[in-house]
Structures are given as structure tokens and as C-alpha cells.
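Our preliminary data section would be incomplete without showing what the modeling component actually yields. Below, a chain of 136 amino acids is followed by its predicted structure, encoded as C-alpha cells that our downstream tools consume directly.
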Amino acid sequence: MASFNRVILCGNLTRDPELRHIPSGTAVTEVGLAVNDKFKKGNDWVDEVSFVDIVFWGKTAEIVCQYLNKGSWVSVSGEPRLTEYKGKQYLELSAHQVSLCGGAKKQDAEQAPAPRKADTSKRRVGGMDADDDPFG
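Predicted structure:
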């Protein structure tokens, strides 16, 4: 029997996306997503925020850098992955689709600045060093 591994999250970006390329030339962008939940505990309403790292690949990574910024409200779907970094495990989402839900967004495409380039000397994406190539 086949399994299904897909998650859909809706929340706000916690930082501006930065575009970088792995050695094969594939574009990669990593952002944080804050997902809010509100529930009743006794007589009080409690806000709870979960933070998830999102990794975009290829053309989607380029589009995210061009049109989204910190605070953008987006819906993202993809595959959840448990990743280990410096002895700690955390959840990340390898995104397949992203949709702008509203809220903060960049200027019109004609006025948008060129995508930001990431400093790959210290970055890790998806639990990999900047020089790792997930496809090769």
C-alpha cells in the first residue's frame, strides 16, 4: 500500500527569502514560517505559534525571492522532513507549491529589486552544507 506524505501550512514568513544556487546550478531558498493557532484553555484563549523551516527549489525558489518578503502571508504545501543539525532534530518542509494569501507583499514586479543572493559561506539549507548537492 502506498503512503501519502504531504502537509499544507498557512502562516507568515519570519524573514526575507534569500536566493542561492547549489553547485549544480539549482536555485534554493530557505525561509521560516510562523503558523499561529488559538485554542481555549479553561476560560482563556491561548495563542500558540509553531515555527517551521521551508525549503523551496528551482523556479519556485526564484519566484519566492522575487515576490515575497518577511511578513508575507502564504499557503505552502510539501513534504515534511525531519532534519538533524548540530545534534538537534527539527522539522522542515520541502515545498512543492506556494500561494500568496494576502498581507505584506513586495512592490509590483516591474519595480521589484533583483533577488537577494545569500552568503553561502555559512548557510545550511535543508540540513546540508552550502556545497552539498541533493541531486548528485
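The radius of gyration is 16 Å. The first helix runs from residue 58 to 67. Preliminary results of this kind motivate Aim 1 of the renewal.
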